[in-house]
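Inputs:
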Amino acid sequence: MESLVYVALFAPLVGSLFAALFGMSPKNLITGIATSALLFISWVASVLLLIHVVGNGAVSTTLMDWIGAGDLLIQFGFQVDAVTAVMMVVVTTVSTVVHVYSIGYMDHDKGFNRFFSYLSAFVFSMLVLVMSDNFAGLFIGWEGVGVCSWLLIGFWYHKEDVSTDINPSISPSWAANEAFIMNRIADLGMLIGIFLIYWNTGSLTYDTFFASIPTMDAQLLVAIAVALFIGAMGKSAQFPLHTWLADAMEGPTPVSALIHAATMVTAGVYLVIRANPLYSHEAVEGVSLFIAYLGTFVAMFAATMALVNRDLKRIIAYSTLSQLGYMFAAAGLGAYWVALFHLAAHAFFKALLFLGAGNVMHAMHDELDIFKMGGLSKVMKWTYIYMGLASLALAGIFPLAGFYSKDTILEVAINEDTYLIWFALWVTAGLTAFYSFRQVFLTFSGNERYKELGHRPHEMPNYVLIAMAPLAILAVIFGFVFMDSFQAFTSTVLPAYEMSHATHEIAWVFIILTTLIALSGIFYAYKKYGAGLIRDEKVESSFVYKLLSNQYYIPKFYDSMFTKPYREISDMLWKRVDLKIVDAIVDAIAKFIYFSGDKSRAMQTGNLSHYLNWMAAGVLLVAVIVSLSAVLG
Amino acid sequence: MIELSHYLVVSGILFSIGVVGVLRRKNLLMLFFATEIMLNAANIAFAAVSSYYGDLSGQMFAFFIIAVAASEVAVGLGLLIVLYKKQGTLDLDDLAVMKG
Amino acid sequence: MDHILTILVFFPAFAGLLGFVVDKGSARAYGIAVATIELFIALWLWMSFDGSNGGMQFVEMLPLVPDFGISYYLGVDGISLFIVIMAALMTLVGMISMSIEKDVKNMIISLLFLEMTMVGVFVALDAIVFYLFWELSLVPMLYIIGAWGGPRRVYAAVKFFLYTFLGSLIMLVGMLFLAYLYHDVTGTWSFAITDWYALVLPMEYQVWLFIAFFMGFAIKVPMFPFHTWLPYAHGQAPTIGSVILAAVLLKMGTYGFVRFSLPIFPDASVMMITPIAILSLIMVVYTAMVAYAQKDIKQVIAYSSVSHMGIIMLGVFAMNAEGISGSIFLMLSHGIVSGALFMLVGVIYDRLHTKELDNFGGLAAVMPKYATIFGIMLMASVGLPLTIGFVGEFLVLLGFYKVSPMMTIVAGLTIIIGAIYMLSIYKRTFFGPITHDENKKLKDLNSKEIVSLVPLVMIVIWLGIYPKPVLEPIDNSVKALVSFMEKKAQTQEAKDIIVSTNAGEDK
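Outputs:
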């Protein structure tokens, strides 16, 4: 079984290195095919591992020592248990689809080979992240996906910086840097958590840490929980570190599908699920509850921003943010398997949604404004079906995947008696349905506004559409086929979360309530946009609309509160402090010595008589000092 | 009665005359004379103190100084003559080759 | 091979002397050949080095002035071994990548003499020998900056020389006083560092001596506020000068702390943890911010060096094996990464004759190989896991966390602000459209540059994935050092702090 672990893990790396060989040469189809094939191998290995884990329990293996100093020993150790197996299958499934899809999508791009190299490197990092059996290994993957995300967001690095009025994310390279730096802020929290774990358990492996949790004192556990969650907040773009995710949409669309929807951004959720012995400990109850409330807040907060946005990809990005909020809410409430289930379901339908958006962009020559689309269903039937299915799943309509996962989260909220969370998530479900279908209707139905702009949209090639099919199938059947077996399987690792009897009895009421609000959201979207775009000046100039479309002015606030002052303070430190004070003092000392030498040079007149006068004065001075010290001493 | 203090006073007066000469005179030759006066002031003090303690070391020093002064004058005057031949003057204000 | 260290030290100097008779046209090839042989001798030293032994190996001893206990006394342990190898490597790589046309022969000879002094400093076990090499290293560097530098080279060279010289003189006074104390206690003279280790000093002497040595080392590191000579030296020095300066010469300071201050003055070192940590934190944060404000790419790298040296200083004063091993490893990694970054800056300077960031932009499109290698070095510089930069930085922060969690959080800002200035220069250099027409026809790396940079890239990745062969010998020597300090410390607080920072678990 160990060899399967390594096959699953290293196949993408081999693919990445192979593609990197062609990185600087013109497009070569073989890179796309080879990386996709290797990912398929990785997928097969993952599925086999999953089957193995179902039957025989977790697999663990150690590759070699990494860092050893003092008492610290970190090894490259990997373990595949139920959680990891699920994550591996999700990651490799989506990645394989995205790789094949990208062969079509990146067809005309100059950086074709480079793209596949980065994309496979990302998958490798993500697998390291989920397969590692210790926090240091997790951190390798954690930073690795960060770098790949940086490379991929900034993939079209040649684009120019423009003002935020034209493009809210300025430029791909700007967005890439923003994502990297924001993630680094959170990573510091994560590092502190790692240090705390090491100095209190003497090891960084999950097993040692989880085993020693019962003996640790409460304050320490809270500190570790907070530090690790700060790390999770960065990767999963939770408020207040959320701005990078929407800007990350500057990257190519397959990247958004894979990294910024299905996999990397769920790493934070994965961390909380993985550390469930910590977060379910009674001492850190407060932190867990905070996670749940923060998740709920982000779910709603992001959904409101999606309501008014005109950018096809940004809408989906906010929706991702919102769904991550759902996952954190579930994890914070202790329903870890539900969070993981939603994570998997979301990965499938959100990736599908993004890839559909990619099809639209491809057809519309990179136009992203949904106000300039409409009526595309006629030319892009399959894309319409895919995006419609994905949106239905996202909205949580029976019997699609999103219905099962999201509804269970709402049920958990009821079960925990956290009605506020339930209510907020319930409202958000309605908002989600509305913005998803607002987008679908504005893009695919109504008047064909794109004709004014002279676009000639066309459907993607068949193999791309076929490649998307697995995701579509999973988005439909994942819930009703896999939910029960999923729960049973993950309960080998995660605490089994059981609804109370009372919740069971009244669950159907809430299911109906949720379905109702989702349906009314869809219906309202249809009423408003089904027939085409009718713009309402009054609404668009209202304060709330402006607030939402400017992302609550948070990016502007960050710019004026952090970015600009940082630059100004740096400048001030250099010009005022370093040059004018620190260096000036050094130069002043040197100048004083030079100056005193220059001045005392006047003594050297060359006139013997002056010298003799100086000498006499010196002798007198010495005599006075000696006699004074004799008298006083 | 002439006591030790009298000798020392004379020696002090002579020495002061020498110092003033060294400091005030501008002619190099006069400077030489002034240093000779200072050396001789020291000699007087040495001889007087030596006789007062009945210890001959002081007088030995005095002789030693006389010898050194003689050789110094011999070399010094030679140098002065060379300098005078070269520069045409022995005035210190005109001899500022070492000005920094 | 009983005299391998002597050969290692004096072979470059001897070859340098012979270099005077070498033909001008072949001077460069001659230099590269000598540096290659030197590197192989250093590698051979590593092969025959016993990594599990934490003590001194290949010791050579020859009395020079027996009356005063001065002897020619060399030896190498895990701490110095890899710095010596790095010095040899960076000299070779620097020579290969060198693009200087003027007076190549003089440059090669200067570099070979410099190599002798660098190797000498790290293997010397006698304070006087150490001091001789320490001071002699200034002379070739002064010449390199002063003769091949930029427009303000004389100012920069003199500032570099006088500033560091001043510090070393104070250190020399400390050495002489220490030898005098040794004589007072034992009745014999000795300048051997290993003899000094055995000397138990009263606290007030320790503090004063610590400060005297501190002046010498801190100016060399350079620690805030003594760092201002560095930006000038780097700004004016030719590429090869900056490479050697950043990679090796700065490490002399931090190495001095490990070799002298910690074992000879353990109590004073423990007492000084907080003040030194505060200075180091200022170095880390303040110079990183100053780096961000720079308009000249070379100055960014220069200030970033100071910032990274701050992390190294923190590791040295973490007093535990994790922190000190991490800081030695970080010295190596910083040597390689900053050396490579200076070489990369040299590449673009050779082509455009400017270092102003505003003149760059969009270079990734025309120079993809250059952009790739720069990107890898950038990631190593910001401490990405699986690159060489992570291992040391992680260990240092981990080690110092035991001393002070709050200070570690401040020091940890380095992973954020380091990313800010590095990504910012990368974006300004490589991303965006090409705004200057002359940049559209730039040539990518030539074979000479690739030959010198690719080995460094390989080391950066190799030691990032598998640091064990280097880290293990370092760690063994550091463990010996730490347990020695623990035994030697006299005051109870010092003992307690050394024990507690090394204790694995808080139970």
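Remarks. The two ends of chain B are 54 Å apart (CA to CA). Chains B and C do not touch (no CB pair under 8 Å).
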